[in-house]
Each structure stands twice: as structure tokens, then as C-alpha cells.
Amino acid sequence: MGKAKAPGPQEQRFAAYIEGLAEAAGHVDRHTPLKNYCTGLLLPGERKSVEPMAARLAAENVRRMHQSLHHVVADAPWSDEAVLDRCLDSVIPAMLRHDPVVAWVVDDTGFPKKGRGSVGVARQYCGQVGKQDNCRVAVSLSITTEKASMPVALRLYLPNAWVEDRTRRKKTGVPDSVQFQTKPEIAMDQIRRARERGIPEGRGAGRCRLWNGHKLPRRTGEVGDGLCRGSPEHHNRLEAGRKTEACARAQRRHRTATQTAATRCKKTSRFR
To answer: Which phi-psi region, left, alpha or beta, contains residue 236 (left: φ > 0; alpha: ψ -120 to 50)?
Structure first.
């Protein structure tokens, strides 16, 4: 019998990357389930929920794999921020080797959803369908270069109707500590944490571009003056010029990257 082929450099880098994510999840009991979950996301197949992924990962013992995946996604007390930070430790240096950061992009992304049991689902504006519809909304902060985009923060928006509904909160496991925040308030928290973490800022950043006419809260000066210089502009049109073209391309890449990341985030009640 021939010798097994040794993994190449790309496979080795990917294995190290996944190992880092597993370590960031904390307890050793979560390592294998989290690796399996990441593998399931990358395997062929349209549906990326736990049940069909379990069938692809362990056709001979779907029930056991389903329980393992569901526990690590829905119940295990790991920090999504810690795992995302580990992603950033690998991805941001790789991005910066090719191009500097040209912009930070704040956005809200809607995901159509039927029913009313999923955390945060409500009738609200959904960009994917271009109108009011039943959906969930995630607020994100991304950094962009000329060729790449990476979400550095992603958080589910919890409408006030959900915050005040004790029955649904208890049923879905929303912590008592989670209170209502507007989307701009969530974004400001994300910007504050990114600056504290030392995330690279765009070259010559002088203005903030905000989505859908939202206004930043008055506490902008605490964290935003270095980005906005105190004068955020509340519209989506960009000025002409090479720099603006780069930002426009970056925003398009950001939208794709953010939708992919949020769609694959199956944990329904993480509000860190």
C-alpha cells in the first residue's frame, strides 16, 4: 500500500487556523464539535443548519453528531467575541500584507425568517427583499481594503418588542442582562471595542458614512471623532474620485462577506 499523502502548506495553514478557533472556544470538550461544525459549513450542500450537516458529517450516526453540533452551537458557554478575535489575529495581518485598510463600514443586514420563535425575528425593513418583512437583523462593523473585507464585529439586533416579551426571552434563552439598544448604539459599542483592540483604521479617514439615514448618538465624541472628525454624513452617496471608488468596491465586498458570516451564524441567542 502507498503512503498517505502528506498535507500541503495550504492544508497545514487551514488546520492551524481551525485549531486556533477551537482553542478560543475554551473547554477541550468543545474542540472537536467546533471543528466538526466548521467542517460542515465548508462541505457541499445548500442547507447549513445542524441536522443536514450532521447527516453529511456522520451518516452512520446522525443522531449523535446532531446532538454534539447542537450543543456547541446552542448551549455551550463559549464567547463568540473570543472566537472572532482569534479569526482577526489570522486574517487582518494577511489582508494588510497586500493592501492597507481604506475604510471601516457599519451596516445592518436583514435575513428573511418565517415564524416568530427565532430570537430577534420581527416585521421590520429587510434589505434582501427591499421592503418590510419578517426577518432578523444583524449590525456589523467591517474593515475593508482594496481587495478584501472582514467583519470585525457582528451582533443581532433585538427589537424592543422582544426585550419586553419575558415569555419569548425565557423560551429562547435571551439573558436578562440584554436590554434594548438602537442599531447606531450597537454600532458605537462595536467601534469602541475595535479601537480599544487596535484594529487598523482607514487612511485619511475624515468622514463617517452611515446607512439608511441613521444618526449616531450624541456620545459620538467618546469614540468616533478620530474616524468622523465630528461630522458624520447621513447618506449613502459617495464623493467622486479614486479613493471613493475604492470605498465603493470595498462596501460591495463587505456586503457579501457580512451576509456570508451572519447567515452561517446559527447560534440564535448569543448577545455578547
So the answer is: alpha
